[in-house]
Amino acid sequence: MPTPIRLRDLIRNIRAAKTAAEEREVIQKECAEIRNGFREEDNIFRCRNVAKLLYVHMLGFPAHFGQMEVMKLVVSPRFTDKRIGYLGSMLLLDENREVTMLITNSLKNDLEHSSQYVVSLALCTLGNICSSEMARDLAQDVERIMRNGPAYLKKKATLCACRIIRKEPELIDNFIQLVPSLLNDKHHGVMLAGVAFVTEMCNISDEYTDKFRRSVPALVRMLKNLIMSGFSPEHDVSGVVDPFLQVRIIRLLRILGKNDGSSSELMNDILAQVATNTETSKNVGNAILYETVLTIMGIKSESGLRVLAINILGRFLLSSDKNIRYVALNSLLKTVHTDMNAVQRHRSTILDCLKDPDPSVLRRAVDLCFALINDQNVRGTMRELLIFLENCPSEFKGDVSSNIVISAGRYAPNAQWHIDTILKVLTTGGNHVPDQTIPILIHLISSTASLHSYTVSQLFTAIKTNNLHQPLNQVACWCLGEYGEVLLSGSEYADPVQPEEILKSLNSLCESHLSSAITKSYAVNAIAKLANRLPSHLMPSIKQILARYGTSMNLELQQRSVEFSSLFNNHDDKRPGILERMPLFEKSEEERIYSEANDPAQGEKVVPAVNTAQQSALDDLLGLGDIGQSTPAAQPAPVMNSSNLVDLLGDLGMNTAPPAPQPAPVAASSIPSIEPWCDDTLGMKMDFQKVDNNILAINMTITNSSLAYEVSDFSFLAAVPKQLQINLAQPSSTSVSPGASLTQQMRINNPNKVALKMKCKMSYKLNGSPVGPIDQVIGNFPPSAWE
Amino acid sequence: MILFSRQGKIRLTKWFHSVPDKERKKISRDIVNTVLQRKPKMSNFVDFMGMKVVYKRYASLYFCCGVDQDENELEVLEVIHRYVEILDKYFGSVCELDIIFNFEKAYFVIDEYLLAGQLQESSKKKVLHAIEAADQMQEEDQEQEVTRSILEEFGLT
């Protein structure tokens, strides 16, 4: 067998390859050679082969077949083999591989090796790939080295212990008594590891935080020694003695001093000393200062010290170095809720950061701006944020828009400003504006009657100039539908508008290919509603537009179109009532989240975690749910007598998804409705309401879902178990035309609270021919109906 | 920790958490893309999948560390810088080619410098001393081999 080529030669060959394909070819050929070498159990060149394989692996090629060879190298007595073998095991294996079972044994042997460099390799590998099993098997060996080993191994063993306790927290007790000796060591590596180890334990459980509060004086002394000690070339970084150790001690002090007055007091002096004496011309010094500031703000420190910390951050903010500005914003963001007023002083500088080109800086500046908004500065800050919204990268637009809406809702000085702000969001945020804001704005507009004509004319101008923004279009459609007539007379804000022009704009929204289906639905609704308020000569064109979507592929749009056409053509007398202006609707759940979640205590960034069930916007549109429920109250007569009207409305009502805001009568009953039965023609739905403790009222709705069958002579009889009594009222009608429905009330008296069951018999005529009787047992009543 | 060139070629990756191979590839690729897109006047920190990536460019090579949200970014920059200094001393004014051709040495240096994702030694001298001692042992291995092969040649074994 020929001698395999050397690693350096392989690398040279790969680099010489001119194309990716050529490179792949070289590598595949070499991999085949390496496999051959492995197969022939070539002991002399195994090390070289594995090293080559590791290089190939780094380039992204599969190298799993080398795992067993790595294990063989690890057990070899040669140091070179071991070194490459352990390197390979760190790169090729991770803790989840089964091979790690094998490596545990080798590690155990090598942890007892006489050469500290072999032990070091084993510790290093353990620290990087330790799994729970390995942690349990090797904890004792690690502990032994932490106790007796030389400093070189002690630090490594301690860091291994960090990993071990992270995997298996119950092993902490093996190590905990070693901590004082680690912290008292003179070797910086051991101190670093010791501090890291204590930090790790405190992160695992508060129990240890309490325990290690005792070490605060020792840590303070350690830090003091570091600062006081003169120049030490070994640990010096541009004139600062071991900044790494300093930063870690200061961080640990933060954890220990959190919410603890007495240990915080012990730290005050040293922190003040660090904060004032650290050289700030270099990055190192700033790193220490940054950590110090965070600790000062994180513990119960003196107020003077806090002022000092905020001033340091103020200085950071003005720095010309991007990184320093970034950390300043980051730490201000962490402290803004504890020291609002102090941070407030830097508001203008923070606003300046909105012009930064770096998204990492921007993200923090924006969050901070929102956290700082209050009643006094809302106008100024919002102005800046709106400018920012206009120019910012698109990934920010969604968040910023919704946060502006939230803040505007909380701090708006007056309604006009509020409406202006949100309109600006809609026009500049465009399609990035989250859907949830639409109902909020609609609610806001409808509740400020004095500004209707202003708002509507603003919206109308906006959609005439640019109709690409769906959220804006939707709000505009809603408002035109409700208040479009104010445009006709003109006002101080705008000249009179011809009714044709309004209709044309809405129609163009309908026709535009850029409009979403939801926008089109809004527009169709608006046109229908305007029919009431525009001059009657426009009626034919309105009807024509409405009818156009009768064949739309979009279900929602088609249904609306068909329903409105039927309303206009068949029930024109009812139309004015139905298309009456909407009453002010209740705020929906989401809006409440928007307006209430923004409690400053809860965090600077309110992420509206609202899962818009399907299309909440559509539910709110025209408040279809509200019409269905509020009209019966307003006009009781037609509901009782004309089943058709009820049908139409009932149907509309059923389209609204359940999460829609449901006003009182339905929402009051906590018993879920059931749909016990349906066939091709008819569907049955039962709503329940507890009248008193024993009596349950059932409202049954029978809906004719067919397209052409006329149902007549409908009769429904029901029987219940003996312990119950049933009282059946007359149905609202005995005939149901296509798409319509009838209702029938019943009351069940259930004094013994037995499980509800019902046997029923139905018969009806379908286009004159009798159907049934159909026997049906209904057993799926919700338990809350009788409990 | 990832080292990669300006062309996006990965030169060295070191993971301190166990992540499946496939994901490792994806994460490294994403980090490389994110970092390469950034302009020189931006800060050295990027938010990436819930963690922060701290990066610094040295000549043609980018050094990247993915760290937790509450890490001190400025200090991580120092940690990276310290590593570069150590490499520099070890190789004698390091360049990208040194790392390509001696990638295993670059790993050995990391392993003396960081462990389990933590800094293990802040003294450059100690790190270098440890590596040199280990290299010495490796050379002794080789010398033994050479002696053995000479002995074999003369038929003395």
From TrEMBL, chain A:
Keywords: Cytoplasmic vesicle, Golgi apparatus, Membrane, Protein transport, Transport. Signal peptide: none annotated. It holds the Pfam family Adaptin_N. Its main location: membrane. Residues 669-781 form the GAE domain. It is a peripheral membrane protein. Gene3D superfamilies: 2.60.40.1230, Leucine-rich Repeat Variant. The keyword Transport applies. InterPro entries: Adaptor_Complx_Large_Subunit, AP1_complex_gsu, ARM-like, ARM-type_fold, Clathrin/coatomer_adapt-like_N, Clathrin_a/b/g-adaptin_app_Ig, Clathrin_app_Ig-like_sf, GAE_dom. It is found in: Cytoplasmic vesicle membrane; Endomembrane system; Golgi apparatus. Belongs to the adaptor complexes large subunit family. This is AP-1 complex subunit gamma. It comes from Oikopleura dioica.
TrEMBL record, chain B:
It is a peripheral membrane protein. It is found in: Cytoplasmic vesicle membrane; Endomembrane system; Golgi apparatus. The keyword Nucleotide-binding does not apply. The keyword Metal-binding does not apply. Residues 1-137 form the AP complex mu/sigma subunit domain. Keywords: Cytoplasmic vesicle, Golgi apparatus, Membrane, Protein transport, Transport. InterPro entries: AP1_sigma, AP_complex_ssu, AP_mu_sigma_su, Clathrin_sm-chain_CS, Longin-like_dom_sf. It holds the Pfam family Clat_adaptor_s. Its main location: membrane. Belongs to the adaptor complexes small subunit family. This is AP complex subunit sigma. It comes from Oikopleura dioica.
